[in-house]
Amino acid sequence: MVKVTIDGIEVEVEENTTILNAARRIGGDVVPPAMCYYSKLKGSGGKCRTCLVKVSQGSAKDPRPMPKLVASCSTMVQDGMVILNSTSPEVVDARKSVVEFLLINHPLDCPVCDQAGECDLQNLTYAHGLSKSRYEEERRTFEKIDIGEHIQLHMTRCILCYRCVYTADQITDKRVHGVLNRGDASEIGTYIKNVIENDFSGNVIDVCPVGALTDKTFRFKQRVWFSKPMDAHRNCSKCSGKVALWMKGNDILRVTGRKNSFGEVEEFICNECRFEKKKTEDWTIEGPRHISNHSVISQNHYENTFKAKLASRQPKEIYGNKDSAEK
Amino acid sequence: MEPLTSRAQVVEKKKMNLWERMYLPAIVGGMAITLKHLFKKKVTVKYPEQKREFSKVWRGQHVLKRDDNGAERCTACGLCALACPAEAITMDAAERKPSEKNLYREEKYAARYEIDMLRCIFCGLCEDACPKEAIFLRDDKIVMSEFGRKPFVYGKDILVEPMDPTKRIDISARQKKTF
Questions:
Q1: Which chain A residues are closer than 8 Å to B81 by Cβ?
Q2: ipTM of the complex, rounded to two decimals
Q3: Interface of A with B in 268-297 (CB under 8 A)
Q4: Identical fold, A2-90 and A120-218
Q5: Which residue among B77, B94, B95 sits closest to A111, beta carbon to beta carbon?
């Protein structure tokens, strides 16, 4: 076990833990944002540079600070390390620049994009970015590509985080997905519209931090914040069957994995659950999902329903149940 | 019980004398007040023929604007409905077909856009929320009365401005926000 201090808060973690994961152990404002790192995907991270932090003391043995800001998702902690995240003006400034770089080729078509409201890039920009763009050149554009019948790739919005590539590589057994070309010409290739036929291919939608990979069954159906997220499960032979349903009235508009507070799904779900089970009868609904009140989705979202409150106040049975009393 | 204000007065019921019981000065005083109002400037106007001038900040019926080429600006992003404190706005989005490029500006458009004018409080927050400069509150048109509730739900047929460039609705004063 090693002791590290992040933004003045001390935490004890195992050796070979990254700074980001140590910060996630503390939680709250200490956690650096991450656009490309995904704890469930091996090898992810180190690409987007949004998780940069300042190490003001390398370790207890060697207290010199690290010369440059480091990517917290791929730097391991050392005993006695002192890390500054949002308390360092240098980090805040660097993050602002990173956001500006990420937005250079982003089309900013949030009013049209289905991801708006639950988009990591949108949240990051809101928290760290500038309100105006300095970019004057023409942004790169791509044609929309259909990957299979349920997934749409909108390459213009992609920030090249590689998360979907790792998902295709690790979750599915046959990879038909990768990044082609270099520099600002690089794009997510699907080997000439090769259909992803794997049962878990739909998870690329959930891991995508922006609206580059979206669910075609949900396309333009409803803005995310007007649908009601509910926890639900079903008996599925392929996956755990634990999902989040996005409902409007009694209609299920969309099915996604359950995302935790860091925006990562708890369990990957299969394509059958995601795309084909759109009837209320298919699911056992557990209740409204918890949504942080910082999110726009929490608008008109009530978690403590009247029914739930009433249940806690039900009179307790004193005389045993009715059947036994009659006998 | 404690009085709520210090202004409470005890009413004295003393017996009136003959002069007071005739009520003459009170009647004359009352008539004088009535007569005075006859010669005052009228506060009402003869409405349908004569119309009151609207204030610059006055907000009336909504309009969904088109751009210079006649394409609808609204992309059904839902921000107006989100900002609306009265929850008066509802909409359904649809995807634009390649043949409809001259009708809608972006790939998504509002297939249905309804404002319930009975709910609307004319606060103008929808106008502020709109990222596409599509919805504005006109400063020259009021929402008319109706005989039922149904006609107050204004759809796109009423809200969208005419395609004809000469019949476009001028909202430049609200756009500039000079007030």
A1: 226
A2: 0.79
A3: 296
A4: no
A5: B77
